[in-house]
Specification:
heterodimer; A: mainly alpha; Methane Monooxygenase Hydroxylase, Chain G, domain 1; two-stranded antiparallel sheet; 6 helices; 5 strands; flat; B: about 240 residues; 7 helices; GINS_A (chain A); DNA replication (chain A); DNA replication complex GINS protein SLD5 (chain A); GINS_Sld5 (chain A); GINS_bundle-like_dom_sf (chain A)
Amino acid sequence: MSDVLSDDGSDIHQDDSLEEVMTPAELIAKLEEAWLNEKFSPELLENKSEVVECVMEQLTHMEANLQRVKKGDVKVSVHRMEMDRIRFVLSSYLRSRLQKIEKFFPHVLEKEKSRAEGDPSLLSPEEYAFAKEYLANTETYLKAVALKHMPPNLQSVDMLKAVPEPCLDSFVFLRVKERQDNILVEPETDEQREYVVDLEEGSQHLMRYRTIAPLVSSGAVQLI
Amino acid sequence: MPIVHNGAVTSCVFFAVSGNSYSAGTFISSTVGVPALTHSFCKQNNPAVQTMDPSEVEFLAEKEMVKIIPNFSLDKIYLIGGDLGPFNPGLPVDVPVWLALNLKQRQKCRIVPPEWMDVEKLEEIRELERKEDAFTPVPSPYYMELTKLLLNHASDNIPKADEIRTLVKDIWDTRIAKLRLSADSFISQQEAHAKLDNLTLMEINTTRTFLLDSLNCMYKLRSNLQPGSNKGKALDY
């Protein structure tokens, strides 16, 4: 694919911060994958901040270029429409992450704390700040409204116990992108036996998230 | 068979079916927008995160390519998602559905319906779909959404639009009936895995909330029944 902005001859790929070379179209596809995975997985997934940053960069560049085009050009409206569509996906993606952080904040922060040095962080720096602030505000609020009126021995609440954990045993729908052999399916009841299935490329399945969670983060399957 | 009941959920209603093709009753109880504090502390697992709106599926369908015949000329457009054009009056060109519909609304093009959007072809598909027990391959992963979009906005460019609408609705209804039957047997046989080839996203989406929530509820009930299993504890607040 040629350059997005060859419209007016400038190049924006040189400062691409992604390691592998990716066309803008692939970048958008990556964002959409991340969006759907995040939407359907019961837990918070690893943040894709590099994809988010690159998309933002593309949008800013495009915006700047559109400023230079003379008014009334038909192309501008087409570009604007496309940008609006991309912005929608981007904000829906970030919003669903924030929703999950709000829902699981103590567990998210706990996971972040126990993360080994060098492991990629689940949260972007902004999300981390948000989660911490959310925790602090919730605690303050709870204290002000309820806890301080309680007898002294009942004045503490363990957030980790008070807030539900993500339910990894939820079922999810998925499409296979890279063939996987011998995925172990755990039985639903004691009478049944466990068995293995092969996930063929392009096939679609309904199964528990826990079984395939590693495949989601490796990108071998796509939640749908 | 599922019983249609005016919104009230009785014990054996598996899927509330409304007349509308998209909203198969599963989106009634959307919990989006519940204030964070209440839902963090409520006992139920809020399903809001794991849902998708039918309009979002339609959004994805709008990325499909469709042929148009423009009545204007324009150089190539270099979009972020790929190049389009050049546009010349009378010469067919491929564009995404969202752009096709926009140009159509501004009366700048004629839309060429996709090949499968044809009465004979759809009749064949309908017969096959009725004959087979399994789901047959559909002509497009977004056949329902595309039919709806194109027929609503460009029905004057599509020959026999009404017949096509009915045919696609028939195919959809047959498939949704199959989907309900298989969901029913999935639940009654307590399966842990199902293969869903040839199902489209919109079809999955009509049962998603209800099916997944039911499975989770049953899982909760079951794991609490089995003594010694601590699987259920994580869910028991």
